[in-house]
Write a structure and sequence with these properties.
The chain is an alpha/beta fold. The protein contains eight helices and seven strands. Helix 1 packs across helix 2. The longest helix is centred in the last third of the chain and has 13 residues. The radius of gyration is 17 Å and the shape is globular.
Amino acid sequence: MRTGDGFSLAVQVSGRDDGPVLLLLSGQANSHGWWTGLREAFEDRFRVVTFDWRGTGGSRGPVEEWTTPWFADDAAAVLRGFPTPAAVYGTSMGGRVAQHLAANHPGLVDRLVLACTSPGGEHAHERTPEVRRRLAAGRAGTLRELFYTDAWDGHSHLFGDPTMSAEESRAHLRASNRHDAWDVLPLIQVPTLVLHGTDDLMVPSANAPLLTGRIPGAVMHLHEGGRHGFFDEFAGDVVPVIDDFLLG
């Protein structure tokens, strides 16, 4: 599909044609591949929709100073192609985008799930300098250690889109780092579930109560021992919580 400014976004649809729409929003510098092995858990109940962020997967074009509100406008353009309002489940940067989507396009969203994410800005709890150094060093295994517990032995689709250029990756990093939804969070007027792993060092779990307190009526669920990829490693525990919230 094409956005208002003419950018072509790759959109993927699976699940029940007659089911309620569930839009899944992936993390920074990742395509819809982020949801490989995860979207399937929702397909028997929902019409599951994903799309590739600008600069990832099949969504390629000019690289600009993208922002999370800009990505939220893209998500809104995607949703307008389906029956709305829809449920939205955003993880990491996708959760940041989802905040602006629900606040700025209220008629498109009826339920919101925010996982391992942050309000951004001066109120947010940022990763420590040590974690930043580990990421900057690019040491093999760093992402695995930050996303998963030592007990995990699976294959991950969460470590970034390898087809991205350095310019595209930097643009995503800037968009995520500059995110600040603090002032618009009270505008979110739909039921909201905030999920986080208690041992997340990428986006500290202290951000979860900030979001919960700032979004009217939001509820919080913490997964004990989960790291940044808790929603993947512990999907068997997390998906039922999301189901109860979305379908309850």
